[in-house]
Amino acid sequence: xxxxxxxxxxxxxxxxNHFSSEAVPGALPQGRNSPQKPPFGLYAELxxxxxxxxxxxxxxxxxxxxxxxxxRSGPYAPHAHxxxxxxxxxxxxxxxxxxxxxxxPLPAEPLDFVDGLRTMVLNGDPDAQQGVAVHLYxxxxxxxxxxxxxxxxxxxxxxxxxxxxxxxELGVLxxxxxxxxxxxxxxxxxxxxxxxxxxVRGYVCENYGAAFRLPELGPIGSNGLxxxxxxxxxxxxxxDGPAQPWELIRKFGGALWRAPAAASPFxxxxxxxxxxxxxxxxxxxxxxxxxxxxxxxxSIFTVLTSPSDTPGWANCDFVIFPPRWMVAEDTFRPPWYxxxxxxxxxxxxxGRFDAKEEGFLPGGLSLHNSMVPHGPDADAFDKASTxxxxxxxxxxxxxxxxxxxxxxxxxxxALNGGHLDRSYADCWAPLQDNFKVDRP
Length: 440
Known about the structure:
2 helices; Jelly Rolls; mainly beta; six-stranded antiparallel beta sheet; single chain
């Protein structure tokens, strides 16, 4: 790739900002978006992430100046993928029980990012532009001359094991465990292990609904949680090697389609706009919590939100539980027992989760659907109920939650793939009735 030498060298910072970048000086037109003859014989192409008439503050689009336009591909043919599913229609009806999964190991035969995707839970309908899916990825080899584009939704990659190098039409980004990477709907990309010969594993949140944005801060004020400046976008870089055959994989209407291309699709020499991929380091999250009493609502840990048509009821919230100080007085410090109208899917990147120190493992997943009771296991309850309430640093941990207003349905693979923890509910069995009243 011709452009930045290191994936995150670019200083394109700021969620929602408008950026300009050129890998060759003078490649970016000045004063207009689509001149009669763009510099260096490039083609001008517009990528619109919102409708033309979306309100200006939320309008997303990027102008691309590329060696060949993206119409130079096709025709498309079906591409089979038995374990990648889309929308509520591909889920399985289940009773209202809590569910938990052990980590899914990498396949014995090395697969690339696309072939290694496994859908675990999902809801909604991408054609209606609402809902979310949670997939697992596991890759033991690079994608080579393959590129992927998701038309059904934007993708939030959450590395859990091994760093990934993500090549996009706008340039290259890199993310390691503890970082997240957001890919806009409709933008071509490929995901490779950052280390040659390595393997990677992690989670993917596919958002069919309104694009992720930073949550409102309300009385918190103008600073806090995920700060705008800490989201890093790429700088322009393009493939300048000789033309060779490529394969394009497109997720469209819940199915995969493949098409040949005569040359690399990563041929954008310059671009400007605000529809861009980002990488974000969760260690920069400004965690806010109680400095008096009570565990705050987990919404205080929201990194990104996809709103629905009902204010406050998110299509999808992405929430993290990072290292933090616990200082509340006379308080049961782990998350409380809870029944929630929202549906919650949790993953663990590393360490332990304070409400379930055993059983919930890095790379694993849990699901507590709408109004399904959940909370600390018996061991966590006993420890937290008797612990000395001195200030304590909860360190070496990173969990996350994908929360949605719609019920999440597991896939047949999730239920029957051999990784479901069928004894999960046993973690609450030792909880006793401790009610005592001294009667005269």
